[in-house]
Amino acid sequence: MEQTAEKRHSWTQLSDGYLSKTPVFQFLLVSLIFPLWGAAASLNDILITQFKTVFQLNDAATAFVQSAFYGGYFLIAIPASMIIKKNSYKFAIMTGLIFYIIGCATFFPASHVATYSMFLVAIFAIAVGLSFLETSCDTYSSMLGPKQYATIRLNFSQTLVPLGDIAGILLGKYLIFGSVGNLSEKMSTMHGAARLAYGEQMLQMTLRPYKYILIVLLVMLVIFALVPMPRAKATAETSVDSEVTEEEKPSLRETVAYLWHNKNFKKGVFTQLIYAGLQTTVWSFTIRLALNLNHNITDSAASTFMIYSYVAWFVGKLVANFFMSRFSITGTLTGFSLLGVVSLIVTFTVPNMTAVYAAIMTSFFFGPEWPTIYTHTLDQVKEKKYTETAGAFIVMALIGGAIVPALQGVVSDLTGSMQFSFIVPALCYLYITVYFFLEYRFEKKHPEDLQEH
């Protein structure tokens, strides 16, 4: 039925899962999902600050916010891919939106119960939804059109993520922190019932941004329910009347066995894990670096550096996309990565605020590296019947966002220098540079295997 319905549209479903042309409206609709997970991720930084003060948590306890967030991604990616495999990308996206809505809605009872664990449940529910969305949208965006433009499509969609990050940090900065000032200073003089009452009042402030996010999510859910979407899945022709049917679904065990013996795929997943950790740790420690180097700025003022970082990331994506549309993708990102290493060397060696601006500049060089590694790794899966689960394994690499920051924290504690600990992301970026350089060199030697243009 759906195959017949697709023939009424301008696109044609090809046997490898790609389409003959990109359905512009459907592609833009999928792309608008991308900033939604950016907003949720950047709001976590605001929540950590809020919860640390209200619940009187130590740094280890506040880390549970990121554990709940990345744990949701890690645990749900494979189940999400199995749902995509059995149903459709559209169904998985709608499932993700529903979980995201449930997570946001859970903030309302959580603010009344006023326990840290209840908020963690809400954050985990949001992460479950985001895992569905990212597992489906990253792959779906790359499949919505001709194969040779898959990386360009995903890079375009991913370019919208920083806009979500900026929106999230601004919502938190003005709706949660806006009328409070420095929360830790205010609550440091409060005790007993007065402190408890004021803390509960502050928890109510966390609801404000999620009210607006809920409205957007509900509108997106309705639109997705009404708009016909391509299946964008690998097909096979049967011997009877050359009828086109969806390719037989392999078992999870068969898929894991195939991927485990795919050396290039495993290298790509590991690289994505390193990149996810690199990006997360630079952003996690930039505010603290600023406070460490300049004792005259407040926590609220220091959070502005994150806005600068997200803006730099967005501009970097645009600049990189310009170069990648004219030159080699892997060659462009080899240069970007090398300049990122230089920025981080400045960050951990120059003992003044120049180091903070160098850390912000690093975000510029992040550019579109996540989606490029994603599509390059997915390209290593030659048997497209394994695509959905392969995409889930790449999304699971986000667990690097929990591992590398912890490693940088250990280096900071051992050396007694927050600034020197930026050597950890510098080494990560050096690995990424080598990865892109080797990919670029391989493509120069084997131009017949080039899939990016």
UniProtKB/TrEMBL annotation:
Keyword Transmembrane helix on entry: yes
One term of GO molecular function: fucose:proton symporter activity
Location in or out of the cell: Cell inner membrane
Keyword terms: Cell membrane, Membrane, Transmembrane, Transmembrane helix
Record carries keyword Transmembrane helix: yes
Gene Ontology CC annotations of this record: plasma membrane
Primary site of residence: membrane
SUPFAM superfamilies found in the cross-reference section: MFS general substrate transporter
Membrane topology: Multi-pass membrane protein
Transmembrane segments: 24-43, 63-84, 91-108, 114-133, 154-177, 210-227, 273-291, 297-315, 327-348, 354-374, 386-407, 419-438
InterPro entries: Lfuc_symporter_FucP, MFS, MFS_trans_sf, MFS_TsgA-like
Protein name: Sugar:proton symporter
Organism, as annotated: Secundilactobacillus collinoides
Lineage: Bacteria, Bacillati, Bacillota, Bacilli, Lactobacillales
